Amino acid sequence: MVQNQLNLIARIRLRHDLSSGQVVERISDPDFDVPTTIASFRGHLYVVNARFTTPPTPTTPYTVVRVDRR
């Protein structure tokens, strides 16, 4: 779960029936800049940084931060 206001990713362990979960870790990175979306691929987490203060254009750059899963 992305906690963008805190610049954190919360890793949650879900129950087998998916009825609830428990936060087991919070991950931060100095390259986070209001993370908004997260994806998992081959042992890494990829986090897209938002650009809330920048008007979107076809050339607006966005960054993706890769962090190791722990």
Mind explaining what this structure looks like?
Helices cover 0% and strands 49% of the residues. The chain has 70 residues and is mostly beta strands. A hairpin with a 2-residue loop joins strand 4 and strand 5. It starts with a strand and ends with a strand.
Q: Could you provide a short overview of the structure?
A:
It is built from no helices and six strands. The chain has strands at 2-3, 8-14, 21-27, 35-41, 44-49, 64-68.
What are the segments in which pLDDT stays under 50 over at least 5 consecutive residues? none
Report the average pLDDT across residues. Answer: 87
State the distance separating the first and last CA atoms.
14 Å
Shape: elongated
Helical amount: under 10%
Quickly list its features:
3-stranded antiparallel beta sheet; 70 residues; mainly beta
Walk me through the topology.
Layout: E1 2-3, E2 8-14, E3 21-27, E4 35-41, E5 44-49, E6 64-68
Antiparallel strand pairs: 1-2, 2-3, 4-5, 5-6
